[in-house]
Amino acid sequence: MCGIFGCVLANGRAAPMIRTGLKKLEYRGYDSAGLATIYGGSIFVKKGKGKIDELHQELNFDDLPGAVGIGHTRWATHGAPSTVNAHPHLDCHGLVAVVHNGIIENFQRLREELEARGHVFKSRTDTEVIAHLIEEYLGMGKDLLQAVMDAAKRLKGSYAIAVIYSGEPDKIVVARNESPLVIGLGDGMNFVASDVAAFIEHTNRAIFLQNGDVGVVTADGVRLMRLE
Ligand code: GLU
Questions:
Q1: Is the C-beta atom of 100 inside 6 A of ligand 1?
Q2: Torsion over CA of 67, 73, 76 and 78, rounded to 10 degrees?
């Protein structure tokens, strides 16, 4: 089991906080790690195989710009441990970034369906279908929350997911089924994580998501919904 950490800050830079949060999840075990942030209408990603500290020395995670971002430590289930298979995963246009814990059991079928409609996959993971599904629903004019909900309804298996989208740069949208996910409520900052250990130094106020919960996390609040 691996880890997710994300944060939305009113001020400041998300990346150093995400890297520190991911370090707190190292005990869960992982083979690769990565971060994505939003700044100036673009998504920025750094990821690779290996330990967080070594990757940080090589890539400098902390210079990723922006106050909103997500991070992941991966325990590979589909696709070998490698940079391309490390999370976050992007849609075709690099506008949506997704991190995922769990296993999407129907990913092969979804992948074939999406490829038949012209989507180009970069990785061998089950996770990448989520980014392309969200891309499709956004392309139909839905907002990020609705696109994530529609995508989640297509998934069979276990997931905790956290998603950012350059078109709605102030938020992280999360969804959970059979993989743990917790929202942390801070002061001028809110968090999403696999485990409270990742944000306990910033806040002890937490909302534990249940199966079928979907959440929108911004710097000043959290909205929770149920997947119908
Ligand atoms: N199944 C996904 C993968 O292999 C996520 C694994 C995980 O939970 O880290 O990339």
A1: yes
A2: -20
